[in-house]
Amino acid sequence: MSKSARKSVLPAKKSHGYEFGGPLGAFVISAALPILCYAPAFICNETSGCPIPSTLSPRSLTLKKLKEEAGWPQDGILGLASLRVTGYVLAYYLFSLVLQAALPGLVVQGVQLRSGARLEYKFNAFSSAVTVLLIAAVGTYLQGPDFVLWTFIWDNYVQLITVNIVIAFFLATFVYLRSYSVKAGNHHKRELALGGHSGNIIYDWFIGRELNPRITIPVIGTIDIKAFCELRPGMLGYVLLDLAFIAHQYKLYGGISDSIVLITLFQSVYVFDALWMEPAILSTMDITTDGFGFMLAFGDLVWLPFIYSLQARYLAVFPLHLGAQGTLGIVAIQLFGYWIFRSANNEKNRFRTNPKDPKIAHLQYMKTESGSTLLTSGWWGFSRHPNYLGDWIMAWSYSLPTGVAGYLVKHGSPAVLPLGDMIDDEGIVSGGLLKQQVLQGDARGWGMVITYFYVLYFAILLIHREMRDEEACERKYGDDWEEYKKKVRWRILPGIY
To answer: 56: Cβ–Cβ under 8 A, 6 or more apart, which residues?
Structure first.
């Protein structure tokens, strides 16, 4: 076997060791994260409260009472799944595949692989998402908040989580088993990921053994599974969930609060910015370094849409009125974070594609023995990961509109209040179609565990990703990276980290 043929399959270096706590960590994460996705659906609901009352009085907690307040399915664990919902979700995935194949798109070459080859990608996630949302807009125009898509999402929320979890497990297992069919010198340009060939089944299944698994589907054509999952079903699903929660709030109260509009607007801008800049994913660690396994499959298809949209789901039941000052303050935080995030990423992308671009030609940089160049001024002289700082600042604007979160549901026949006066001085919400009161009471503040979880999680995610980036750069650049760190001292936030 020739040396070049071996490079097309096997990593040029040995596996760089375990991450995420190795096989044990991979097993715990794979088992715990699905449970964590279910938890908010039951602990924070419109039946009894957010969090449910029993959690505020642990001494009086019983399993029977917990099930009643959480809305646990009457047929037990079997109620978490539905063949009908599974069929519709699979149809959604198929429609996403059809749109990718049928709509025109930008065809570009990916980064150079270790074999020297480059994969071809077709990008049209933005136009695909717009197509789906146009269909949803027409349905909403004709049927209002009772449009079948919105009611389906709200009524089958738990079952939607289940089917997407199953899809993530299936994809992770499928690509893991299929990775053993990679042959030396293959003309499909298939390679193994550096970190995914430890030899431990659980760990390699979790982290991803093959770098860019692809399949060819009749009529549709070749699909890059990792790139498809990265920006299509889950990302668009994120927006669809938010819109469904808006529709539900309108059904309950006959109006829409500024807080839920603000969150949905922010998150939609974030999603559509990513879709519009789709080619930028080719330079991310997810595409260039990580294999595709359970970690990415679950993150893209389950964690992102269902965890990131928790704030809008909370506000669907407990709408908060921010007013002009509150709205402007949160908008300012969002814009500041987005300015840092986008400016830093644009600066890096311009430098990589055209170092002579007048917008970045003045920037200082250092050359490395590997042939690469590292920016040492501008945003990337400010810190080694300035885009992460912008990302985290934006995360606050997703949670702040929920205020000091938490509510309890008291069933009764309240008076109808207009939207602007939904929350009175005692933190009570009443709605035109609701025969109940939603008040904060003893739950005030405890709901922040749900609505601000994203901020805490995202900080941990970004710091962990930054640490992985650092390790990868140390392996790639060696002594040059140590020299670079002397020039750019701070990791994310100067003076703090």
So the answer is: 442, 443, 446
| CA–CA gap between residue 217 and residue 43 (Å, rounded) | 41
Looking at the DSSP bridge assignments, the partners of residue 109 are 120
* Cα–Cα distance measured from residue 447 to residue 52, given in angstroms and rounded to the nearest whole number: 9
| Across 434-444, average pLDDT | 82
283-303: per-residue pLDDT in tens? 888 888 899 999 999 999 999
Contacting residues for 168 by C-beta, under 8 A, at least 6 apart: 294, 297, 298, 301, 302
Locate 311 and state its tokens. 């704030």
- Alpha-carbon distance of 359 to 355, in angstroms, equals 9
Query: Which amino acid belongs to residue 55?
Result: T
- Long-range contacts of range 151-154, CB-CB < 8 Å, 24 or more positions apart? 151/247, 152/88, 153/240, 153/241, 153/244, 154/244, 154/245, 154/247, 154/248, 154/316
pLDDT of residue 186: 65
Calculate the CA dihedral of residues 61, 65, 68, 72 and round it to 10 degrees. Answer: 60
Residue 7: pLDDT over 50: no
